[in-house]
Design brief:
heterodimer, A: alpha/beta, Rossmann fold, GMP Synthetase, Chain A, domain 3, globular, B: mainly alpha, about 55% helix
Chain lengths: ~475, ~80
């Protein structure tokens, strides 16, 4: 099977993109190559994208030109973007034309009116590993220079596995509501382009009338969401909506509350919608496990089993493989979609496969007597904020760099920041802007001195014990 | 300004974490980055609790500006 970005013109006049704009597969290929041909092979490009036909064309163009692509959010904070430019010295940046004005001295290669392609005047020629295709961040938009290195093999293997397990067909029209710089959102696009399906892309948000008008008018057949998407869907009365074109829904990017999972599973079954709970990480390209829709009700709350070609095992504290149901251990995943490793600067692009197909996920799980896996928590100080993974230690570091001493704890969608600083609102705004997450999930609380151990470490258990 | 209007403004300030001076007619979904899906759902929850009302699907998805919200709430019996 060809890579999803190869030979797109075989789908000819079929629509690759619908929604705000329309673009056929032939047009996508020629637009992509129009952008790709301006760039040198095996160079590095930043792709500061939004879910638009133009961003997709730029991304595909870079892949086709075998340029290493680093995906970034178009709205990434200016300061954080420049930190990344410093760490990676990209040869090119594709960004919003207004943002392009910040890149003084860079050479404009293309300006579509909305987006620009710029070339770095100090063009750094360093090698990149031959297999390296794509770099994605693990941490939403904290601007951390830590990126996951993904190979051509990684992205194609995962796209194929996802397409198989979700029964994706050429007639599908997925509504691409998740950002394409986010591994899960990008994987929706990859797995559908593979079969010549039509991606519905729009700038309108899920809680607007426009979104649902586009949904109906384009005849969307599937919708992918993070757990928070499902909370919104429930609140806006999705379960009572009449959406005859809708055939499949997926949830991934965090743990969906079991009651909500069951409610959607039941409602979807009634309406003939295939409902899939999935599990993934950027480090495994996107997705590692899937609960088949036939079991969505019976095994609600489970992430199912490994996607085709993958294998999941659980390892206990002693590093031994768990063989009995009900015992909690760390998820270790094996498969062709396991990333090559991490990068924190340009020189790391030359690195080869460090993971060798094995990923210790840091997520804790157990399996039942039928072999279905259930996530139980995380080993490290991570939480998900509306689907974005946030490292609490990193949050503290960002705040500390801004001059605020804080201790962070929390659960998914609810971050709590403790500080003895008086600038509570300022801290909230700062971190909300830096992370690109809504302030409503962040609570900043004043405390007289952070509790610390004798070695100076923040005692999180004491923070946890404080009433919210 | 009646009580309902000041509660309405306070709800915007809380949901979107904005200044008091920003909570007015010019606050619209399309022109404010703060008005994302998360802020939107927070606003709806705050208003439902404050006024003891329950929004229907159409009210939630048509609520795209400060003024539109006043119109929607008025039709639900909240007087401004």
């Amino acid at each position: 099977m060809p890579y999803f970005f190869e030979n797109l013109s075989r789908f000819g006049g079929k629509l690759a993109v619908m929604g705000d704009e329309q673009l056929t597969y032939s047009a996508l290929e020629s637009e992509a190559d129009g952008i790709g041909s301006l760039m040198q092979e095996r160079s590095l490009a930043f792709c500061a994208c939004s879910n638009t036909a133009e961003s997709l064309a730029a991304y595909i163009g870079m892949l086709r030109r075998s340029v290493v692509v680093m995906m970034l959010d178009e709205a990434l904070d200016r300061g954080l973007l420049f930190r990344l430019v410093e760490a990676y010295s990209p040869n090119y940046i594709w960004c919003d034309s207004t943002r392009a004005l910040d890149f003084k001295g860079w050479i404009p290669l293309k300006d579509t009116g909305r987006n620009s392609l710029l070339e770095n005047p100090s063009f750094l020629r360093t090698a990149a590993h031959h297999g390296l295709a794509l770099m994605l961040t693990t941490s939403g938009s904290t601007g951390s220079p830590k990126f996951v290195r993904l190979s051509y093999k990684n992205i194609s293997a995962n796209a194929e596995a996802i397409a198989e397990v979700l029964e994706i067909s050429p007639e599908d029209r997925p509504y691409c509501a998740l950002p394409m710089n986010y591994t899960y959102g990008l994987s929706v696009m990859h797995s559908h382009l593979l079969y010549g399906a039509s991606l519905i892309m729009s700038r309108s948000q899920i809680m607007t009338r426009e979104f649902w008008n586009i949904f109906s008018e384009s005849g969307a057949t599937s919708l992918a969401g993070v757990p928070y998407t499902y909370e919104i869907l429930k609140k806006i009365g999705f379960l009572e909506m009449d959406l005859p074109s809708l055939k499949a829904m997926t949830v991934s990017g965090g743990r969906l509350d079991k009651r909500l999972a069951l409610e959607f599973a039941l409602s979807c079954r009634q309406k003939g919608i295939r409902f899939y709970s999935m599990y993934g990480q950027t480090e495994a390209t996107a997705r590692m496990a899937c609960l088949p829709h036939e079991m969505a009700v019976e095994k609600a709350g489970s992430i199912g089993k490994a996607v085709p070609g993958g294998e999941i095992s659980l390892i206990n504290e002693e590093g031994k493989r768990i063989t009995v149901p009900g015992e909690v251990g760390e998820i270790v995943y094996r498969g062709e979609n396991v990333s090559l490793g991490y990068a924190t600067n340009r020189l790391d692009l030359v690195k080869g496969d460090e993971n060798k197909g094995v990923l210790k996920t840091g997520d804790m799980a157990e399996f039942d007597s039928d072999g279905f896996f259930y996530i139980k928590g995380r080993r490290k100080r991570f939480l998900k904020m509306y689907g974005k993974r946030v490292n609490l230690d990193e949050v503290e570091e960002i705040l500390s760099n801004c001059g605020y001493v804080c201790g962070c704890i929390g659960v998914d969608d609810n971050m709590r920041i403790f500080t003895s600083d008086d600038r509570l609102l300022e801290i909230k705004r700062k971190i909300s802007a830096k992370l690109g997450i809504s302030p409503s999930g962040i609570k900043v609380e004043r405390i007289e001195g952070l509790p610390r151990s004798s070695s100076g470490k923040v005692l999180y258990s004491l923070l946890e014990a404080r009433d919210a | 300004m009646n009580d309902n209007m000041s509660v309405y403004k306070k709800s915007f300030i809380e949901a979107f974490d904005i200044e008091e001076s920003e909570a007015n007619s010019s606050f619209r979904m399309n022109s404010k980055d703060e008005w994302d899906s998360i802020g939107h759902m927070t606003l709806i929850a705050i208003l439902e609790e404050a006024y003891g009302v329950s929004f229907e699907t159409s009210s939630i998805i048509d609520f795209d500006s400060f003024d539109k919200g006043v119109e929607i709430l008025s039709s639900m019996g909240v007087s401004f």
